Amino acid sequence: MKRGILICFFLILAVKTSAVTTLNWVQTTEDDFNQGELKDTSITSQGEVKLSPHLEEVFTSDELYIWSLALDKKGNIYAGSGNNGIIFKIITSLPATRPKQEGPLIFNTEEIGVHSLALDAQDNIYLGTSPRGIIYKLTSDGKIKVFYDSKEQYIWALVFDRQGNLFAGTGHQGRVYKISKSGEGRVFYDSLESHIMCLTIDEKDNLYAGSESRGIVYKINPQGKAFALLDTPQKEIHCLALDSKGNLYAGTAGEEKADEGGEEKLSPDKKIRSVVYKITPEGVAQEWFRSSEPHILSMAFDQEDNLYLGTGNGGLIYKINPQRESTTLKVSQPQILSFLIKENEIFFSTGGLGSIFKVSLGYKREGTFTSLVYDAKGISAWGNISWKVNTPPGTKITLQSRSGNTEKPDNTWSEWSKEYKNYQGQKIESPPAKFIQYKATLLGKDSSQTPVIDEVSLAYQQKNLPPEILELKVSEDGKPPKPSPGKEEKMSLPQLAPPPPGAKEELAPRIVIWKAIDPNGDSLIYDLYFKGEKEEDWKELEKDFPKTLYSPDWQSFADGVYLIKVVAKDSPSNPEEVARSCEKISRPFLIDNTRPEFKDLEAKLYPPSTCIIRGEVRDASSNIKSLEYSLDAKKWVAIFPQDGLFDSQREEFKLTLTNLNKGERTIMFRATDQADNLGAGK
Predict the structure, then answer these.
(1) What pLDDT sits at residue 16?
(2) What whole-number distance in Å separates Cα of residue 105 and Cα of residue 90?
(3) Distance CA 55, CA 363 (A)
(4) What value does the mean pLDDT of the chain take?
(5) Same domain, 518 and 645
(6) pLDDT number for residue 503
(7) Which domain covers residue 566, as residue numbers?
(8) What is the dihedral of CA 578, 579, 585, 590, to 10 degrees?
(9) In this structure, are 282 and 193 located in the same domain?
(10) Which residues are CB-contacts of 469 (< 8 A; sequence separation ≥ 6)?
(11) How confident is the model at residue 497 (pLDDT cuts 50, 70, 90)?
């Protein structure tokens, strides 16, 4: 057994050190799976994909939204809708075999929305509406009347205290109203915010309110004194809930508040994310949960202190236990607007299509999880797909794959493959491509058990693509290569020792420099060649050179025009049979190692103190660039050729000196060519 393990170990080492790299796309965490698409499946915070709880649609309507839910003592559900402001009654005591029903229309408020509902101790129902801010009272015997007209625009939230007083959170003035049993109302607290979006109340009749504009959570005591518990970075606190220990939870919706400069704050990927804050009875606040969804629209606790969060606009429901372990469930409607807990049953209402669903205890019999589209960063051959699972007896999981070369799957993609059934690894049948996606199908035996996916791993190998040399430049002597137009480059030249005092500074050597990339990320080496401009054959300078800067011994080159060829190879990362290469040839450049020479220097004296010197300076390979003279080894003075231009390899010059002192004088000349070779004469 040990020998087998040792062999396996060496095989692993061989794979890791092999030039051909096999890559693996692995999905194993909640974040990994959350990027996929759920259909009758759910994801846990431990990174598990399992079948979702069974969802039963108990009510559907022609309304776009079911904004609010309430439960009477008989177990009947009342639902407030929009955009027609209707209240429905859903009788939940009907036999389970009876199909879903449209609840009877109880009352049409003639308003746009019934955003909040509350029931008093006598099962009278109170309806908070918009846009006229009227609270209606629907008695248990079916009579309806205006209970209180707030003169506001929105009644966002309703809640009763233990004395039977009704509190209403309103907008656009951000006020909380207190209304007695007889319908007498007054402003209980004016927050100076735009909206009070949500209310809840504890056992001591302390009222908690969440606001919109500055995203503040308030605690208001029974005397109406408010204390801000939390000022969040977000603009809106949309929902509140208390657990059995008195901890308060606040869910946000929408973007963060603007900074002092008036700019909206966004995450680095420019996505709005929602947050749940936890505030202890002692007033200690912390960020407790963060969702990828932009809005947390509803929240409620069940009897075991599991927190349910409803979001928009992706239609996700989160179930979070007291240990902060979460399960994510995707539903068919985009918005989860309200929860209702009925003993061990959980109901929720939706927006997009106004419906009510019941979450059952059992699991769905079948569901699928479709992964995100994975970008292999190049045309790739697919290896095995394997998965780690827990499959109770009678359950199973199969996978399928498809591939294509467009970022979003379309009709150019391959069809879904046949089912892969061997979780230990099965060859992917999808054709080589840049993108790939898998789909997992989970099948349960009955509603009591679910198979679980813990990890999916997909092996692939990119097709080896040739490297590319983006630029190749040869500098002039003493100068770095010129950058391409519109590009800024930093190029390092070899450092020279400083010249001795009084000496001319030595020029930096001519260098060859290039920039190369490999689309597979392979390591590169280079072969370098040269030839004369009119020659046929390339001569080798270097083989398997590892750097991208090179400076040969240019002094060994005869004068002339040359070209450099660089060949880039990815052979360090690939075996010989699949290694790729590319090449680039430089522009012609001049090698000039010969100094200018002075010819036919002639001096004539013209009394009393004038001297005229004539001569010629020549260079074998390049134009003369400068000409200077020095009288008696003093400072050098520039002179021009007789035609006024340095434009040829042969320049004639004439120098006239006047007011010379008597005696012997020494006149020295020096000239440079285009290659900065220096020649002298006297």
Answers:
(1) 37
(2) 9
(3) 9
(4) 89
(5) no
(6) 36
(7) 468-484+506-591
(8) -150
(9) yes
(10) 514, 515, 516, 566, 568, 582, 583, 584
(11) very low
